[in-house]
Inverse folding.
């Protein structure tokens, strides 16, 4: 049993403390926007924010999230207004199948918080998410657009 704060809401989750945060979010909290891809911290589909930093929730034990703010894709918009990264994603028609996109958006939102005007090198270093549909070019364009917003 653990108490988490997810998207500003305090929730109790009935899991072992070593359970990956991803499963607590999806199966206990019921927020399924965060996806399971590889389960070994390689693809980024499961990316959420922990106190504003991007983390791969498939390898993050619930214990590590206790006392911290967890933000998922469902909590990124504010009062019904899309986050600038979400807006750029829509404007640039980034998603194809969409499976990887929540993780990508969360990773990019964290990058822009740290580096509001990232260079291509910054993007290459930080955004290591895998997209099987190959949306990488649109992702890069949308990141630069979001940085100008
Ligand atoms: S599912 Fe977590 S990095 Fe792939
Ligand atoms: S949009 Fe399909 S895997 Fe990225």
């Amino acid at each position: 049993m653990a108490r988490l704060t997810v998207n500003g809401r305090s929730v109790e989750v009935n899991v072992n403390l070593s359970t990956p945060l991803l499963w607590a979010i999806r199966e206990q909290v019921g927020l399924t926007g965060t996806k399971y891809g590889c389960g070994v911290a390689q693809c980024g589909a499961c990316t959420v924010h922990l106190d504003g930093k991007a983390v791969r929730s498939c390898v993050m034990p619930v214990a590590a999230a206790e006392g911290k703010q967890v933000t998922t894709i469902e909590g990124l918009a504010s009062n019904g207004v899309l986050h600038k990264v979400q807006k750029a994603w829509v404007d640039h028609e980034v998603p194809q199948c969409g499976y990887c996109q929540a993780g990508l958006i969360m990773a990019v939102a964290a990058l822009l918080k740290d580096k509001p005007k990232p260079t291509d090198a910054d993007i290459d270093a930080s955004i290591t998410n895998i997209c099987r549909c190959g949306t990488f070019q649109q992702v890069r364009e949308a990141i630069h657009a979001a940085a100008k917003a």
DSSP finds six helices and five strands in the chain. The pocket of FE2/S2 (inorganic) cluster (ligand 2) is lined by residues 95-101, 131-133, 135 (CB under 6 Å). The mean pLDDT is 98.
